[in-house]
Design brief:
Strand content of chain B: over 45%
Order of helices and strands of chain A: EEEEEEEEEEEEE
Helix content of chain A: under 10%
Number of strands of chain A: 13
Oligomer: heterodimer
Low-confidence stretches of chain B: none
Largest sheet of chain B: 7 strands, mixed
Structural class of chain A: mainly beta
Largest interface: A-B, 21 and 24 residues
Distance between the termini of chain A: 41 Å
Number of helices of chain A: 0
Number of strands of chain B: 11
Order of helices and strands of chain B: EEEEEEEEEEE
Low-confidence stretches of chain A: none
Radius of gyration of chain A: 14 Å
Distance between the termini of chain B: 31 Å
Radius of gyration of chain B: 13 Å
Helix content of chain B: under 10%
Structural class of chain B: mainly beta
Largest sheet of chain A: 6 strands, mixed
Strand content of chain A: over 45%
Shape of chain B: globular
Number of helices of chain B: 0
Chain lengths: ~110, ~110
């Protein structure tokens, strides 16, 4: 069935370093790939998304790349800051009967140390 | 996401009791979703609805029920058949075929 794998499960970096989180998906028909940031006890918030007709998208310190052939996409955070510490979820949206289902990865806990 | 509200913030359930979680949105979104999140895990889809009076089971629908009588509202009932209901429940909404889902603040359900 549809599946999204996310790595690593935890990531610890020093402030100012870069962080990279990778996801692979199983359904080749997936066409939308959002990334959410969730702080402790809070709701997931969309930070960036990419659609299958582009290979890369950037928004200030955050970028996402998509490789449709390999069925994987990655989140890149540059110049990390302590406030970037949170759990990050990737998701893929397979086309299923017209409904916009999102299949989520298990999450990556990012810790940025001052 | 500020246009989606969930209540209550915390809910306690006794054994054998049905409880209902509220989700309301004023974003004029047609699609609404319910997810369950267990500690240290991702989000799993319980039910989703694309239009009023229509809804579909997600991956873990057993022990849950929903209704969609109004576009703005998508309540979730956790029935006594759900034997392990302790979790963080998140409601989301999106435009029809808009893909981007926006989440409510969540309800934490605990069993007494």
């Amino acid at each position: 069935g549809e599946n999204v794998e996310q790595h690593p499960s935890t990531l610890s970096v020093q402030e100012g370093d870069s962080a990279v989180i990778k996801c692979t998906y199983s359904d080749s028909a997936s066409n939308y790939f959002p990334w959410y940031k969730q702080e402790l006890g809070k709701r997931p918030q969309l930070i960036i998304d990419i659609r299958s007709n582009v290979g890369e998208k950037k928004d200030q310190r955050i970028a996402v790349t998509l490789n449709k052939t390999a069925k994987h996409f990655s989140l890149h955070i540059t110049e990390t800051q302590p406030e970037d510490s949170a759990v990050y979820f990737c998701a893929a949206s397979p086309v299923s009967g017209g409904y916009n289902k999102l299949i989520f990865g298990a999450g990556t806990r990012l810790a940025v140390h001052p | 996401d500020g246009g989606i509200t969930q209540s209550p913030k915390y809910l306690f359930r006794k054994e054998g009791q049905n409880v209902t979680l509220s989700c309301e949105q004023n974003l004029n979104h047609d699609a609404m979703y319910w997810y369950r999140q267990d500690p240290g895990q991702g989000l799993r889809l319980i039910y989703y609805s694309q239009i009023v009076n229509d809804f579909q089971k997600g991956d873990i629908a057993e022990g849950y029920s929903v209704s969609r009588e109004k576009k703005e509202s998508f309540p979730l009932t956790v029935t006594s058949a759900q034997k392990n209901p302790t979790a963080f429940y998140l409601c989301a909404s999106s435009k029809v075929r808009g893909e981007t889902q926006y989440f409510g603040p969540g309800t934490r359900l605990l069993v007494l």
